[in-house]
Amino acid sequence: MEIRTGFPFRGKNLEELRSFLAHNGLKYDERAGFSICLVENEQIAAAGSLDGNVLKCIAVSKDFQEGGLAARIVSGLVQEAARSGVFHLFLFTKPENEKLFGSLGFYTIAKTDEAMLMENEKNGVSGFVASLQNRGKEMTARGTGGKTGAIVMNCNPFTNGHQYLIENAAMQCALLHIFVVSENKSAFPADVRYRLVKAGTSHIPNVLVHPTGPYLISAATFPDYFFKEGVSPCNINTTLDLTIFAERFAKSMGIVRRFVGTEPFDQLTAAYNRRMKEFLPRYGIEVIEIERLESGGSAVSASRVRRLFAEAKMAEIRELVPPATFEYLTCPGTCLTAD
Predict the structure, then answer these.
(1) Which of 12, 87, 186, 264 could lock onto 156 through a cystine, CB 3.0 to 4.6 A?
(2) What is the pLDDT of residues 107-131, one digit of tens each?
(3) Rounded Cα gap, residues 291 and 287, in angstroms
(4) Are residues 11 and 39 in contact, defined by beta-carbon separation less than 8 angstroms?
(5) β-strands 255-261, 286-290: how paired?
(6) SS3 category, 284
(7) Domains plus CATH for the chain?
């Protein structure tokens, strides 16, 4: 059986792959950087793709179900990831494939009616969440009603609007967890965004700041978040990301409230917030929307700060961001400390 690889495929090979996947009920992901096909008599028998650390678009022809081709495809994708120095892998597939990929060394993180996310570390997500719980053991319960809340935010960069949202949410909780997106696909690096949030919330005694790791709003759980151009808010699939939050994070950490700010600009984030309001109450999680902070007659937003930064309008930025963020923007070499 012939092995074909593409980085990614183009032309005729790509069209044949698209057609094969469509015939097997899958859609080719244009973000894939590597694909592998097993070909018999010029016909694709099995295929799979790799998008960073995510294995996806894996299919085997019905005529070759008993040939162990899925294992060969997964092995090829794992080897390619290893050549790039990537070893913690995620696999995106349909729920009916759980047993198959479980036998190939992948463990279920969460699944919905339509999709499932697995990883190749047995206790990956549970270990990660446990490490966050350990960080909060010394936190004394304060606030209103003893409830635990959460905010998941990108903070690209951290603004007065983010700080306002956190301050208001913290007043409604005994303990507030802030999860800062760890994916490095934003204008400001993940470590910088995390440290700016730490600096900007150091005055709030009942707040704990965490990284999301690869488990919340990541390329594996919610790739559309990082490729908003050309993505219709009507077509985004947020259910998997919200399921992971509810079943893996909120359940273990006792989170019963999730806070969001109103979203007047970003249609995709607004759609995500609407879905959150519909979905999370099923798990006993109340979604509380807080009105955006305004300055100069307009909502304070990270996109506004980025636009002013590109125009070098630092005096205007000073009014929109906390001191630590302004100091970093004026001097990127500023030493930021975290834990």
Answers:
(1) 186
(2) 999 999 988 999 999 999 999 999 9
(3) 13
(4) no
(5) parallel
(6) coil
(7) 2-122 (3.40.630.30), 125-330 (3.40.50.620)
